[in-house]
Structure formats: structure tokens, C-alpha cells
């Protein structure tokens, strides 16, 4: 709780639409996409950078803790307040005015509260898009703070690769506005300061405006479900596709049988594309795309995909057991339903891991061999962005399992999985979801003291106030 006079002062700065204090009205801001349920002292909703600066400065001067929140789709307990009732949520949901497109530069300057879907809807008529694709609909500021990866990383990279400039409000007594705006792709005139605000979960400042790189909207897309001959054939299959398709290859996503079964059960309208409804042990979603319409005499993209698959089929290594070319919207509907599908199978313990590409399937096989002995009665429902080394390694426990009565069980399982991923395979415990309360302990454990000290120094220099859910130092 914060004192009533602070609420009055903040309302004066932001207007009556700019602050929420009713218990029921705050509920959506207190509830995370997956795990969390916190308690907010209030929710601030600035509509401009200037309002954000005034509110942040006020909070810092009065020792009020702030948690930035954008689309609230984050999965590591970063965007919601803790249970103390003392943290104030700073929401971006009214920061949606500015939309300044520069088609010649293939860039757009937007307020950080824009939803990804709304941004891409507005860009469609210019045949452009912001090329980060995922099964949720975040806001741009949250995507910057988490450095979202998504399903087309393989072709377009992550958010970091697509940011040209930022405007940031620092959590200091003045609510300093840092203008790191640039519409330039090439600019090496000193430290690239915007990088410290990308993927750092809002610890160093609140992103209020962004200049984004845009890409040409694909005009032809072809997709297929590929069944690899075995787990060991996934990487040879990826390499064979890269060799033959180069920059056409825009997604190479892996889906386990259990994850697909979860999606099919949860979304009955999904079509089961596999012969006889028999879902294979592991399936790859492959997509190829190009930005021009079919030209006379040019092979359509479906045919390109089919002929490349036929060629791979014939290779000596024979990494492919089966392939089903299908319409992109149907193929992607299954992929995008996986996350929600596994959530409905039982109690979900999710990991966002990454590895060298050659290690992903080895790690998954390692888990499949050892986990049943160590933690009987759990189900592995992994899927992931295999093309860029990412795996959403999900473990599901039946809701009536006695394991859940043991308070230490989940933590024990988490520590065991992460230790193998990080220590044996030199992977990352947070591939693309950044940091939050959920994975803070792994940051604390695995980050060298020297780096923590540097981060603490940066924090003091940028945002000495109480900001965000993560402690870097
Ligand atoms: C179904 C589903 C599928 C998903 N798939 C993917 C995927 O494929 N790839 C992927 O990378 N992620 C995925 N995610 C995770 C999530 O969507 C991303 O992390 C997303 O980028 C978070 O953005 P958001 O706007 O929802 O941010 P929020 O959840 O609101 O916030 C995330 C973090 O950023 C901080 N923050 C928010 N706004 C700001 C700001 N303006 N300035 C500074 N800090 C800020 C918050 O404090 C918090 O720490 C998925 C989530 C769901 C629910």
C-alpha cells in the first residue's frame, strides 16, 4: 500500500485515466500470463514519455517501487508486482500514440505501448512488417525488454537485431529522458547505449519509444511438416535445408509428439494432419518464404519446397522419413497452439533453454532417458526453435499427482534440469524470455561476481530508484 497523498499527487500528474487503484480493476495487471498473482499498490498509465518521466521521477523521489508492464505476456514473473502490495505497476497500455513510418528507410518510430499485432496491421498496406513472430501478442516495449526471439529468428534475428533507436525514461529523481533515437543502421560514434536496455527486463530504464527495422512482407510462403528419421537426423535435415534453400528458409521449428497431442486436445478445431491421426514422435515445421509475387516461368514456392524435400529424401544420409506440405495458416495454427496446449495437460514446469544447435536433440534424449528414473510420472512436452538452438523444454505433472504435495519437488526438478543444461551442455537457462523472479536464482548462481558488480554499477548510474523485478547486482 502507498499513502493516499501519493495517489492524489500521481493522479494530478497523469489525470484520472492515468491511475488505477480499484481492487478489481487492478486484477488484470496483477495476474501474469502463466504463473503469477501479485498485489499492486496502484497502476500508473502514462500516455506520453513526458507523463512517464514525471510519474517515474515522483516515485523515485518518494521511494516508491515500480514494475514496468507492457503486454503482460512474459513468462518469467517479470511484469507483475510481487505479493507485498507495495509495488506500483507502470503500464504502457496508453502509450500508443506515435506511429511515424519512414518507408524509404524501412523503419518506423512507435510508442512502446503498441501491440505487435496492431503494428503489423498498420504496416500491412505498405507491404512491410516487424519480423518477430510468436504465439502471443506482446507490446513493443516488453519485446525490447525481453529481446523476444520467436519462430523466425533463423531468418530475421531477434528484437535486438531489429532495433535502430530507443527513448528511455530512467528511474532517477528527475525521471531523466534518454534520447537514444537513431534511424540509422550504421552508427559507430561511441558506445551503443541502447543495447543495455534490450533484454534486461526493465532494470536500467523504461523504454517509451522505439525505432524499428522493418522487413518486406513475404508474398509467397510454403510450409511443411517434416518427420525426421530419428532425433539424430534433425540437425542433418536442418543443414540439408540450409544448404539448398539459403535465405529462403524462414522457420525450422521442432515439436514433440506430447506437445502436439496437448495442442490437439486443447483446441478441437485444429486439424490433425498426420495419416490416420498418428502423431509421429517428433515433427519439424519448416517454412520458406520470399518477398516477391510469382513471376512468369518461375517455379512456385510450394514446388521449390517439394523438389528440395525430394532431393533430401534421396540423399545417402536420408534424414527425412516423411513430409506433409500444407497451407501455412493450418501448419502455423498447430505450432502456435502448443504453448497453451501443454499448459492444459497438468501442472506445467517450463524451461526456456538454448544450446549449440548440435546439442539440442542430445540434451532432449538425455532428459528422456534420465528423467523418468529421477522424477517418475512426469511427461516431457518439448518444442522449440531448433533452427536457432532454442528449446521450450516443458515438463508436465498430472494435476492429481502426489508429487505436487511435496513443496520442494518443483524447485528440485528445476535445479536438476538447469544444472545439466548449463553445466554439462554449456547452454543458457534463459534463451529468449529474459529474467524475472522465476529465474533470478539461476542468474545469481551462474553469473560471475565481477559481472554482477559491473551490472550493479550500471544500475546505480542509470536507474538508482526501485525499478523492475530483477536484481542484476
Ligand atoms: C503463448 C505464448 C507464446 C510465447 N512465445 C514466445 C516466443 O516464441 N518467443 C519469445 O521470445 N517469447 C515468447 N513468449 C513470451 C513473451 O510473449 C515475450 O517475452 C514478450 O516479448 C513479452 O512482451 P510483453 O509486452 O508481454 O512484456 P511484459 O510481459 O509486460 O514484460 C516483460 C518484461 O519486460 C519488462 N518491461 C515491460 N515493458 C517495459 C518497458 N517499456 N521498459 C522496460 N521494461 C519493460 C517487464 O517489467 C518484464 O520484466 C510467449 C508468451 C506466451 C504467453
UniProtKB/TrEMBL annotation:
Domain FAD-binding PCMH-type: 36-217
Pfam families, per database record: FAD-oxidase_C (PF02913), FAD_binding_4 (PF01565)
A biological process term (GO) from this entry: respiratory electron transport chain
Keywords: FAD, Flavoprotein, Oxidoreductase
Cofactor: FAD
InterPro entries referenced in this protein's UniProt entry, alphabetically: FAD-bd_oxidored_4_C, FAD-bd_PCMH, FAD-bd_PCMH-like_sf, FAD-bd_PCMH_sub1, FAD-bd_PCMH_sub2, FAD-linked_Oxase-like_C, FAD-oxidored/transferase_4, Oxid_FAD_bind_N
GO MF annotation terms: FAD binding; oxidoreductase activity
PANTHER family: D-2-HYDROXYGLUTARATE DEHYDROGENASE, MITOCHONDRIAL
The name this protein goes by in its record: FAD linked oxidase domain protein
Annotated source species: Sinorhizobium medicae
Amino acid at each position: 500500500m502507498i499513502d493516499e497523498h501519493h495517489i492524489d499527487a500521481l493522479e494530478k500528474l497523469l489525470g484520472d485515466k492515468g491511475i488505477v487503484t480499484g481492487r478489481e480493476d487492478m486484477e488484470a495487471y496483477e495476474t501474469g500470463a502463466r504463473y503469477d498473482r501479485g498485489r499492486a499498490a496502484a497502476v500508473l498509465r502514462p500516455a506520453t514519455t513526458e507523463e512517464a518521466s514525471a510519474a517515474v521521477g515522483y516515485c523515485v523521489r518518494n521511494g516508491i517501487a515500480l514494475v514496468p508492464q507492457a503486454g503482460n505476456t512474459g513468462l518469467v514473473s517479470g511484469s507483475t508486482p510481487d505479493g507485498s502490495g507495495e509495488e506500483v505497476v507502470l503500464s504502457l497500455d496508453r502509450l500508443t500514440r506515435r506511429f511515424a513510418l519512414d518507408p524509404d528507410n524501412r523503419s518506423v518510430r512507435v510508442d512502446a505501448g503498441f501491440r505487435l499485432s496492431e503494428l503489423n496491421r498498420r504496416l500491412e498496406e505498405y507491404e512491410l512488417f516487424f519480423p518477430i513472430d510468436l504465439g502471443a501478442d506482446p507490446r513493443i516495449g516488453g519485446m525490447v525488454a525481453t529481446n523476444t526471439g520467436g519462430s523466425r529468428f533463423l531468418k530475421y534475428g531477434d528484437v535486438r537485431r531489429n532495433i535502430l533507436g530507443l527513448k528511455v525514461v530512467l528511474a532517477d529523481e528527475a525521471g531523466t529522458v534518454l534520447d537514444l533515437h537513431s534511424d540509422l543502421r550504421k552508427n559507430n560514434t561511441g558506445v551503443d547505449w541502447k543495447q543495455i536496455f534490450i533484454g534486461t527486463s526493465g532494470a536500467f530504464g523504461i523504454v517509451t519509444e522505439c525505432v524499428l527495422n522493418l522487413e518486406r512482407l513475404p508474398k509467397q510462403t510454403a510450409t511443411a511438416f517434416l518427420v525426421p528419421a530419428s532425433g539424430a537426423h534433425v540437425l542433418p535435415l536442418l543443414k540439408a535445408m540450409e544448404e539448398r534453400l539459403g535465405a529462403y528458409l524462414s522457420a525450422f521449428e521442432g515439436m514433440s509428439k506430447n506437445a502436439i497431442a496437448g495442442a490437439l486436445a486443447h483446441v478441437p478445431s485444429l486439424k490433425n494432419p498426420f495419416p490416420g491421426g498418428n502423431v509421429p514422435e517428433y515433427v519439424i515445421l519448416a517454412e520458406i518464404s520470399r518477398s516477391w509475387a510469382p513471376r512468369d516461368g518461375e517455379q512456385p514456392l510450394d514446388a521449390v519446397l517439394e523438389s528440395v524435400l525430394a532431393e533430401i529424401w534421396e540423399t545417402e544420409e536420408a534424414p527425412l522419413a516423411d513430409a506433409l506440405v500444407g497451407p501455412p495458416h493450418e501448419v502455423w495454427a498447430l505450432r502456435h497452439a502448443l504453448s497453451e496446449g501443454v499448459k492444459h495437460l497438468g501442472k506445467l514446469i517450463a524451461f526456456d533453454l538454448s544450446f549449440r544447435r548440435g546439442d539440442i536433440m542430445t540434451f532432449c534424449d538425455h532428459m528422456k532417458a534420465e528423467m523418468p528414473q529421477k522424477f517418475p510420472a512426469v511427461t516431457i512436452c518439448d518444442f522449440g526453435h531448433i533452427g536457432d538452438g532454442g528449446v521450450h523444454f516443458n515438463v508436465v505433472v498430472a494435476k492429481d499427482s502426489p508429487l505436487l504435495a511435496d513443496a520442494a519437488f518443483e524447485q528440485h526438478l528445476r535445479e536438476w534440469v538447469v544444472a545439466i543444461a548449463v553445466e554439462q551442455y554449456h547452454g543458457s537457462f534463459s534463451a529468449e524470455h529474459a529474467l524475472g523472479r522465476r529465474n533470478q536464482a539461476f542468474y545469481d548462481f551462474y553469473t560471475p561476481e565481477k559481472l554482477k558488480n559491473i551490472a550493479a554499477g550500471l544500475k546505480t548510474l542509470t536507474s538508482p530508484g526501485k525499478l523492475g523485478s530483477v536484481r542484476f547486482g
